[in-house]
């Protein structure tokens, strides 16, 4: 619907702001141009004007790639509208290109008929050559399918910031703010909240620089307002979206995950310990938690991934909630320690913010190809709990759920998120902590009656073992990674005992299925011709694609799986109610394989591993193919 | 307050059957540790032994305290989490030359530089025992083993020298059967606030028997060992020899000492806080020089967990703990009742 209604907005050239349902805008420039900051400021403005939105920051792994090159292009896409927005949008309607490389890289994504706003000041011979253009595309027919507005943003910015006496280099770096100002005018936005936000954020750094940026922003806005451009530039107006009443803010997955972990440890009544090692794209979790010490959070930047998880296990052993966060390569390094946490039966939350793999892969690009690693990727029979977040907002709920399962069942929990969720922003209806039931932890401190301390005594129903904190009198005992006697925890090489312990560890995790919500259908019926089954960040495009297909009368439903191991008890029966099951994944078919294995159903894959999220159209097309 | 119960060395023996080879040097070290724990008045419930993998890492099972036998090389990382989570616990790490300096070398480096308050007992037998006798990072050049049938060719690491380079603030050395000396040394290590690195030479009776015979046998010990004592001259060979600093070339040299007159012979007085001399003592080549034992270096600085706790405290000071307020931080807006529609002016900035 989004695309259908917005597709012709530029063709109609009306003098008053045109009312539109949704727009997809992409800012693109050099990685040092401040594109991500511009994008996040525009996002804030969009949120404040009441639109629903989703963003997709797409940036290179290099911090400052050589200027003007195609591999140094940084982009920020935002989809906003007056209807429910679930993805960052398939194809931009507007592309703001700050140099030739940005145009070259992003043009293929632009909708035919879309608007290009290009900084002609950056289209000099050198930059054209670096981008691989023989001649300026702004002056030849290659851009004929689009609308082009070439402005000398560089020169206009230099003029606007002249009074501040900045170096040419610093002055030019204000041009993203000029572009932001123009974008604010285009969508009839109030500048004040952004100016306040910029001052609050950077006021301390260098007054002159902040003032120059604000002047550039104002100049960009004034340009739109006063210059009679004729076409194609004009103002557009997007009405606020219909959203549930409440208090909102925009959040990225990194923030909500950190907040959810704090909330979870608070509900458990435990101080939190995060052991972590910097890795893209998981580092924001460490950054956010490092600032929350007043919430009984200790953060420890360890010497490596192994020390990060081991310190977290040590903290759990000592009675805190141990947490570690990383991405796929780091999780691989943590594998042996995960086995220790499973053997020791201690609570632990392990966050995997997935990225493109294998090996170093695509550090800044998104993928969901670590499901096998999460479910199966350890030596020995080593079961643990796996859950996944579907969006930035959802990270909060999933983080609390991870903490709950970890402490209620004395087990490591792997929480899967991904680079898209970590960096993307969306409006979040802020919850009230009073609505969350607490799950306080109790440590075992009863003196042994027969002189025998049994640290592996278990709840007969859930098989959860007791948690004894060192420091507790008269309960000194030893545990470790060697197989342990069923009750005593003493070293045991007894064959029957190993069978029993292996069975018990499996039964404990399998049994958690009784304590997680039953699988529901996100959209559609609980039976029919086709079920689209997804997990993680594919939620948005699947939801929109199914919504559109259903509007066209297609018999298709969306099932989103949050609890990936153990799977919900009713999932197998539910899936058997559909004639076809299609599993879109940003991997080569990992959940598809798990579902086939668990339920002997003919689940079919739909795979994409380009480092980019699914487009709605790609899933719609697959639905069409499946239903003929 | 609870009545103070005094524990004896026997109280620190667990009910687990000790599974080291008969005659292993680890038995003597276990005995010395149990004796030390009684001597310093340790509380079993407040004491945690953490270990990695290897013969020495079985240690925690045999001490009646809390114990965590973890994975290969990672004991320092686990111990860091334990101590940061509960600084009241008295943490002991038991490791070996392979566990602590090969697979876990990186963690050892960072434990030492951070200066977490704990004791590290590195039981050095210069061999991999539990995996049946391969050479280790402390094995001397030419060590024949199943993995080096023609002799090892790589140069060994000196554990105490590594510790000094990593920034350790307490370094001591002893050997397994030095029962008269080791408990006092361990008590000193325990009293030191920060990471106390104690290397203990340990004879592996099966795979490397006699590796330390040259200086541990009753016959050779007096000539070969220099037991350092704070403020005392560096004498050995029953006081007939001493160490002097050649002030021109800045190297140590062995000098004869006549009639116990160390001063006349210019013998150095041991100053535990002198890092330069500590390095010289650790670099002495055995044979031409004696082997320095005892507390080689001790110069306390703030312990890591104290620095962390202090920063946590300072950063929390004056801040209210209100989760709902935290969730509502930053730019927020409220949506009231029915929204959307034509005018759509219902979103307001808070």
Describe the structure.
- Chain A has 628 residues and is an alpha/beta fold.
- Chain A is 36% helix and 19% strand.
- Chain A contains 22 helices and 22 strands.
- Chain A has a 7-stranded mixed sheet, with helices on both faces. In chain A, strands 3-4-2-5-6-7 form a 6-stranded mixed sheet, sandwiched between helices. In chain A, strands 19-18-21-22 form a 4-stranded parallel sheet, sandwiched between helices.
- The longest helix of chain A has 20 residues, at 207-226.
- Chain A is globular.
- Mean pLDDT of chain A is 93; it is low at 1-15.
- Chain B has 350 residues and is an alpha/beta fold.
- Chain B has 2 domains: 14-232 and 271-305, Rossmann fold; 233-269, no CATH class.
- Chain B contains 12 helices and 13 strands.
- Chain B has helices spanning 26-39, 75-85, 97-103, 105-114, 159-166, 182-191, 213-216, 221-224, 262-265, 275-283, 304-316, 323-327, and strands at 47-51, 66-69, 90-96, 118-124, 170-175, 195-201, 225-227, 235-236, 241-246, 251-256, 291-298, 332-335, 348-349.
- In chain B, the strands form 3 sheets. In chain B, strands 2-1-3-4-6-5-11-7 form an 8-stranded mixed sheet, with helices on both faces. Chain B has a 3-stranded antiparallel sheet with strand order 8-9-10. A two-stranded antiparallel ribbon of chain B has the order 12-13.
- In chain B, strand 5, helix 6 (182-191) and strand 6 (195-201) form a beta-alpha-beta unit.
- Chain B is globular, with a radius of gyration of 26 Å.
- The model of chain B is unreliable at 339-350 (pLDDT under 50).
- Classes of the chains: A alpha/beta (628), B alpha/beta (350).
- The interface between A and B is large, with 77 and 69 residues.
- Strand 17 of chain A pairs parallel with strand 2 of chain B, so a sheet runs across the interface.
């Amino acid at each position: 619907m989004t695309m259908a209604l917005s597709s012709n907005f530029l063709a109609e050239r009306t003098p008053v702001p045109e009312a539109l349902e949704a727009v997809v805008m992409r800012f693109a420039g050099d990685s040092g141009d401040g594109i991500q900051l511009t994008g996040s400021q525009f996002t804030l403005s969009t949120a404040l004007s009441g639109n629903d939105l989703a963003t997709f920051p797409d940036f290179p792994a290099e911090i400052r790639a050589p200027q003007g090159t195609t591999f140094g292009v940084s982009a920020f896409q935002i989809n906003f509208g007056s209807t429910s927005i679930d993805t960052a949008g398939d194809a931009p309607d507007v592309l703001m290109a700050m140099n030739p490389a940005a145009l070259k890289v992003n043009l293929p994504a632009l909708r035919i008929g879309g608007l290009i706003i290009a900084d002609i000041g950056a289209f000099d011979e050198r930059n054209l050559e670096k981008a691989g253009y023989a001649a300026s595309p702004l002056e030849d027919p290659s851009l004929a399918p689009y609308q082009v507005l070439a402005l000398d943003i560089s020169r206009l910015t230099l003029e606007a910031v002249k009074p501040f006496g900045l170096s040419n280099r610093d002055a030019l770096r204000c041009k993203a703010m000029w572009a932001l100002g123009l974008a604010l005018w285009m969508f009839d936005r109030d500048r004040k909240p952004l100016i306040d936000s910029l001052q609050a954020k950077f006021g301390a750094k260098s007054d002159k620089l902040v003032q120059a940026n604000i002047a550039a922003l104002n100049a960009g806005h004034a340009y739109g307002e006063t210059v009679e451009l004729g076409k194609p530039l004009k103002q557009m107006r997007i009405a606020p979206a219909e959203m549930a009443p409440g208090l909102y803010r925009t959040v990225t997955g990194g923030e909500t995950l950190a907040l959810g972990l704090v909330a979870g440890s608070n509900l458990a009544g435990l101080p939190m310990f995060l052991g972590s090692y910097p890795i893209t794209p998981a580092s924001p979790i460490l950054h956010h938690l490092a600032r929350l010490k007043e919430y009984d959070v200790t953060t420890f930047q360890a010497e490596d991934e192994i020390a990060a998880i081991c310190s977290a296990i040590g903290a759990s052993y000592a009675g805190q909630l141990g947490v570690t966060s990383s991405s796929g390569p780091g999780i691989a390094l943590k594998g042996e320690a995960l086995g220790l946490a499973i053997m020791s039966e201690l609570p632990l939350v392990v966050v995997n913010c997935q990225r493109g793999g294998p090996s170093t892969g695509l550090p800044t690009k998104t993928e969901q190809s670590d499901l096998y690693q999460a479910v199966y990727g350890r030596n020995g029979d080593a079961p643990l709990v796996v859950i996944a977040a579907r969006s930035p907002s959802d990270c909060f709920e999933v983080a609390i759920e991870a903490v709950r399962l970890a402490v209620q069942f004395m087990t490591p929990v792997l929480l899967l998120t991904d680079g898209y969720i970590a960096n993307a922003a969306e409006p979040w209806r802020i919850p009230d902590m009073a609505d969350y039931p607490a799950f306080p932890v109790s440590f075992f401190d009863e003196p042994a009656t027969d002189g025998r301390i049994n640290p592996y005594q278990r709840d007969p129903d859930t098989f959860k073992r007791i948690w004894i904190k060192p420091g507790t009198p008269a309960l000194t005992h030893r545990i470790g990674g060697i197989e342990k006697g069923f009750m005593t925890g003493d070293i045991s090489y007894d064959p029957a005992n190993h069978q029993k312990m292996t069975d018990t560890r499996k039964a404990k995790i399998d049994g958690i299925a009784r304590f997680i919500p039953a699988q529901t259908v996100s959209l559609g019926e609980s039976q029919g011709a086709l079920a689209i089954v997804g997990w993680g960040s594919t939620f948005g495009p699947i939801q929109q694609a199914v919504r559109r297909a259903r509007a066209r009368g297609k018999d298709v439903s969306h099932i989103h799986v949050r609890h990936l191991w153990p799977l919900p008890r009713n999932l197998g029966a539910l899936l058997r109610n559909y004639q076809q099951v299609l599993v879109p994944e940003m991997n080569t078919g990992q959940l598809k394989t798990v579902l086939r294995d668990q339920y002997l159903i003919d689940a079919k894959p739909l795979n994409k591993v380009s480092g980019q999220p699914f487009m709605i159209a790609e899933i719609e097309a697959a639905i069409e193919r499946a239903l003929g | 307050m609870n009545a103070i119960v005094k524990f004896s060395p026997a109280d620190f023996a667990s009910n687990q059957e000790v599974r080291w080879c008969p005659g292993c040097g680890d038995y003597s070290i276990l005995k010395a540790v149990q004796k030390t724990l009684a001597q310093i008045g340790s509380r079993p419930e407040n004491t945690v032994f953490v270990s990695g993998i290897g013969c020495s890492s079985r240690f925690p099972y045999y001490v009646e305290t809390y114990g965590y036998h973890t994975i290969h090389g990672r004991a320092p990382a686990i111990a860091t989490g334990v101590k940061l989570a509960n600084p009241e616990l008295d943490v002991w790490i038991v490791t070996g030359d392979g566990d602590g300096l090969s697979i876990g070398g990186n963690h050892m480096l960072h434990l030492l530089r951070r200066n977490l308050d704990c004791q590290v007992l590195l039981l050095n037998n210069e061999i991999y025992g539990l995996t049946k006798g391969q050479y280790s990072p402390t094995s001397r050049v030419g060590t024949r083993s199943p993995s080096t049938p023609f002799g090892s060719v790589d140069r060994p690491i000196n554990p105490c020298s590594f510790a000094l380079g990593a920034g350790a603030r307490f370094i001591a050395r002893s050997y397994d059967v030095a029962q008269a000396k080791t408990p006092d040394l361990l008590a000193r290590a325990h009293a030191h606030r920060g990471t106390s690195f104690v290397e203990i030479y340990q004879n592996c009776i099966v795979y490397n028997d006699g590796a330390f015979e040259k200086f541990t046998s009753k016959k050779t010990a007096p000539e070969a060992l220099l037991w350092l004592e704070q403020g005392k001259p560096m004498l050995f060979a029953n006081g007939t020899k001493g160490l002097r600093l050649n002030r021109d070339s800045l190297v140590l040299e062995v000098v004869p000492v006549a009639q116990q007159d160390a001063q006349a012979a210019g013998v150095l007085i041991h100053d535990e806080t002198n890092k330069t001399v500590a390095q010289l003592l650790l670099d002495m080549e055995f044979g031409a020089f004696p082997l320095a034992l005892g507390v080689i270096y001790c110069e306390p600085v703030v312990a890591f967990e104290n620095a962390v706790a202090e920063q946590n405290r300072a950063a929390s000071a004056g801040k209210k703990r209100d989760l709902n307020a935290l969730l509502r931080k930053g730019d927020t807006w409220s949506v009231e009742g029915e929204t959307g529609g034509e005018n759509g002016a219902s979103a307001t900035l808070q």
